[in-house]
Amino acid sequence: MTNQMGRILTPDSLPKCLPQATLMVKGHEAILSVPSNDYTFSGKSAEMIQGIFSFLNGTNTVNIISQKTCLASEDIISLLDYLCGESVLIDINNENKGSLTGYQLVELVKQEIVFWRQHINNQIFWEKVHNGTCSKRQILGWGIEFYHYVDAANEYMAAGVAYCRESIDVRQKIAAHYAEESDHGEIFLQGLMKDGLSATLVKKSLPLPSTRALINYLNEVAMESSLVYTAVFSLMQSDGKSFSKIDLTEYYSQLIELYPFAQGMFGSFLKHALIDARLDHQISIFENLYANDEIISHREVKRTFVTVRQLVNCFILYYEYLFEYYGKEDSQLPRRAPQVIDFLLAENKG
Fold first, then answer.
1. C-alpha distance from residue 142 to each of 207, 239, 331, 343 (Å)
2. If you write DSSP's letter for every residue of 13-69 in order, what string do you get?
3. Among 164, 121, 311, residue whose Cα is nearest residue 232
4. Which residues form the Thiaminase-2/PQQC domain (predicted)?
5. Is residue 343 assigned to a domain?
6. Residue 218 CB burial class (10 angstroms; 0-12, 13-18, ≥19)
7. 101 and 48 share a domain?
8. Is the pLDDT of residue 346 over 70?
9. Are the C-beta atoms of residues 37 and 144 closer than 8 Å to each other?
10. Best CA proximity match to 234, nearest among 64, 109, 144, 59
11. How would residue 279 be classed by pLDDT, with cut points 50, 70 and 90?
12. Is residue 14 very low, low, confident or very high in pLDDT (cuts 50, 70, 90)?
């Protein structure tokens, strides 16, 4: 969404660049590097990006950056609007735009989700997965934690239906969405069984604290309001792009080639992705329900952005800790409930 002047940012905006972004000066050029691309600036633009880069952390308004760098706010906005369009930068002050129409809110959330999804996908966990350096424990541990997360739809999505306080039509659509997802945990359980894990032990295993925290957060969001509850699916459900069976098959085939011991697990990931394609999940339930002309209050707008951003933090912790925990050679796979013997000194065991 742009303002009346066709711009994304304003003097009150709080621009935040991707945390992984770096700036390198090479001769008369400045190169802004993000994991998926490089942006080369020259002349006045190079001088400007060098002057403002350290302030692009989401805590300085454009006006403050202008005062600190002695650069015109109009010039700063012109440069940063381009980076916003590339999803390299967002306005943290989106949450304070006041009341918006449903169309406006959905569009702003979609723009921000592209930014946050890049941030999540550039965590070290994904780097290690894609370069083939994860251990067997880390890959299968990921499968177990993902099973717990997917199966938890029967907690938080059920709550989303029960706590819906909107129209019957909205409740029915939320209920239908839950019905579509309710048995998907079984898909991942079957995949893990094919890779030699016991279904009984996987189901009885304790999710990691970070996995449980993610599920608990989704439970709380589901009880708050249907607006913020469905907004989280903008991040969880799809990247908004059309699903391609060929691309999906190629991607998971590459992972199976890297980790042949997890053929069943990645086969279940592919099966689930193809089901999402059949159910048209490239368009989120949030967009389906709220992309309209109805006015959404400032409070609800703010809660939507705060909720989505906190969910990003939950996902980052989820991936960080499963990578750390299952990276230990003595980690339990699957995890079991603590026993007294776990707390005894090594010399007193057995």
1. 11, 21, 13, 26
2. --EEE-TT-EEEEETTEEEEEETTEEEEEEHHHHHHHHHHGGG-BSSS-HHHHHHHH
3. 311
4. 116-229
5. no
6. buried
7. no
8. no
9. no
10. 109
11. confident
12. very high
What is the spatial distance between Cα 216 and Cα 218, in angstroms, rounded to a whole number?
Answer: 5
φ/ψ bin of 307: left (φ > 0), alpha (ψ from -120 to 50), beta (otherwise): alpha
Rounded Cα distance between 216 and 151, Å, is 13
Residue 138 to residues 120, 314, 321, Cα–Cα distance (Å): 18, 19, 10
Helix-strand-coil split of the chain, %, nearest 5: 65, 10, 30
What is the DSSP code (8-state) at residue 95?
G
Contact 234, 284 (CB under 8 A): yes
- The CA distance from 321 to 20, in Å, is 19
Residue with tokens 């839950």: 178
Please indicate, yes or no, whether residues 202 and 300 belong to a single structural domain of this protein: yes
Would you say how long the chain is, in residues? 350
